[in-house]
Design goal:
By secondary structure, this protein is an alpha/beta fold. It folds into 2 domains: about 260 residues, Rossmann fold (3-Layer(aba) Sandwich), CATH 3.40.50.720; about 200 residues, N-(1-d-carboxylethyl)-l-norvaline Dehydrogenase, domain 2 (Orthogonal Bundle), CATH 1.10.1040. It contains 20 helices and 11 strands. A hairpin with a 2-residue loop joins strand 3 and strand 4. The longest helix has 24 residues. The protein is globular. The site of D-mannonic acid has 9 residues, from helix 10 and helix 14.
């Protein structure tokens, strides 16, 4: 990297703050931040963003010396488009100063606290959607509410400060890939608040708002090579660029405290009273097949989604998964043709400019499988529809968390339950025993699903086949 390149700078001041965003990472920078900027460009408003990193200082360290401006690079089939995003005002790092984060959230000029903290950031049990009171961060935050560590701990304490100050609450805008994400987060916040003080819980239940949303844009992690290439191309060093596909979709339940929100509609978002059909469609059709391509693709030696979907055997498997098991489980949102939707997904996956690593998507499977794969399987079983492909995705995940790929190389499995999953996998003497051992993890698999013979037997069969014959020949039997 030529060290003498000038640093990217801001060319206009950030708008006054109206949003605190928890979890400043590539997805927020390429999605929420851009919608906010677009909404302000058309309709005005003070919706500048104070970002919060709940874990590491990296994002602040990269962006501080460029005034929190960065570039968003759209990677289309016909080339790239670079845009400077200037909506971020600051980034606070929670472990360095939890008090500063709480003060920002308690400031009455903040009307929205939005979140992209990933599935595991909610300290809940993925199978039940209830708060995990045994989680070390939840235990900590109940004991020391002034110095929270968890997302839920921050939300409850900040809302409490506003209540005590006689201020209005903020709207909590969840932007993670969880089913009924706003409603679920409201439940977690109320469970926690109930333990702190029942009257606080009652105030939050009555006054705060937690709209559910469906968010969609593919944004792979930025690599050092991406940063170097962009610097060479633009002649400026930007340490925090993001790279994303052209497509974006945001369906938002129109339920904000005092109706205070940016004009998202002007920027093309869908404000609706019924967001659930959008969420289910996206989680099952997109994220479900993303996870399928991640586990099967990684095991078969494919580095990216574009490579995996281009593999004829994997591509045919994903088509079958959509058409015979996912689409039949869904009631489409009004006016949406699900076959056109899945065809468009295929085109998005194939975009070779997007290097979305299967390894990245494979992360945190224990937190992702329930809403991406298992809900679909449970619905299909209840309606006597097939689960063969869905069970095979679960088997591929089991093979993956075992920690060795088909060429005998170690897999760097990242998952909050990684250690336990590995132990269960290694302790079992056959594929069948391994399937049963992993199906017994109740944070992931509800008992009714895990003990359903139709599902359990297919998982065991597919796992045995993946172990003995590999991905390619296992999937060939589906053709
Ligand atoms: C992906 C998502 O990493 C993952 O698990 O499935 O981040 C996916 O790219 C987005 O949800 C697309 O909107």
């Amino acid at each position: 990297m030529p060290a003498d390149l000038p640093r990217l700078t801001r060319d206009r001041p950030a708008p006054p703050a109206g949003v605190v965003h928890l979890g400043v990472g590539a997805f927020f920078k390429a999605f929420g931040a851009i919608w906010l900027e677009d909404a302000m460009a058309t309709s005005g408003g003070n919706w500048g963003v104070v970002g919060v990193s709940l874990r590491r200082p990296d994002e602040r360290d990269k962006l501080a010396s460029q005034g929190y401006a960065y570039q968003a690079v759209e990677l289309g089939p016909e080339g790239r488009q670079v845009r400077k995003v200037q909506v971020l005002r600051d980034i606070l790092v929670a472990p360095e100063d939890a008090g500063a984060v709480l003060s920002a959230m308690a400031d009455p000029s903040i009307r929205i606290v939005s979140l992209t903290v990933t599935e595991k950031g909610y300290t809940h049990s993925p199978a039940t959607g209830r708060l995990d009171f045994g989680h070390p961060d939840v235990v900590h935050d109940l004991a020391r509410p002034e110095e929270p560590r968890s997302t839920v701990g921050f939300l409850v304490r900040a809302l409490d400060r506003r209540r005590q100050a006689g201020a209005r609450p903020f709207t909590v805008l969840c932007c993670d890939n969880l089913p009924s994400n706003g409603r679920m987060l409201r439940g977690l916040v109320l469970e926690f608040a109930e333990r702190v003080a029942p009257d606080l819980a009652a105030w939050i239940a009555a006054e705060a708002r937690f709209p559910s949303t469906m968010v969609d844009r593919i944004v792979p992690a930025t690599t050092p090579a991406d940063i170097d290439d962009l610097a060479r191309e633009t002649g400026q060093l930007d340490e925090g660029p993001v790279f994303h596909e052209p497509f974006r979709q945001w369906a938002i339940e129109d339920d904000f405290v005092d109706g205070a929100r940016p004009d998202f509609e002007a920027a093309g978002a869908q404000l609706t009273s019924e967001v659930e059909p959008f969420e289910l469609m996206k989680l099952r059709c997109l994220n479900g097949t993303h996870s399928a391509l991640a586990y099967l693709g990684y095991l078969a030696g494919h580095e990216t989604v574009a490579q995996a979907i281009a593999d004829p055997v994997l591509g045919a498997f994903v088509d079958r998964l959509w058409h015979t098991e996912i689409v039949p489980s869904l009631a489409p949102p009004h006016g949406v043709d699900l076959l056109a939707y899945t065809a468009a997904l295929r085109t998005r996956y194939i975009n070779p400019a997007i290097r979305h690593r299967t390894w990245q998507i494979a992360m945190d499977g224990s937190q992702k499988l329930p809403q991406r794969i298992l809900g679909t399987a449970a619905d299909n079983l209840a309606a006597e529809r097939p689960v063969t492909c869905l069970a095979t995705v679960v088997a591929a995940w089991m093979r993956y968390v075992g920690g060795t790929d088909e060429a005998g190389r170690a897999i760097d499995v990242r998952d909050p339950l990684a250690g336990r999953l590995r132990t269960l996998s290694e302790g079992a003497e056959s594929a069948e025993a391994r399937a049963d051992a992993l199906l017994s993890v109740r944070e992931i698999f509800p008992e009714t699903l895990a003990t359903d013979r139709r599902f359990r037997d297919q998982v065991a069969r597919s796992l045995a086949s993946l172990e003995n014959r590999g991905v390619q020949s296992t999937l060939e039997t589906f053709q």
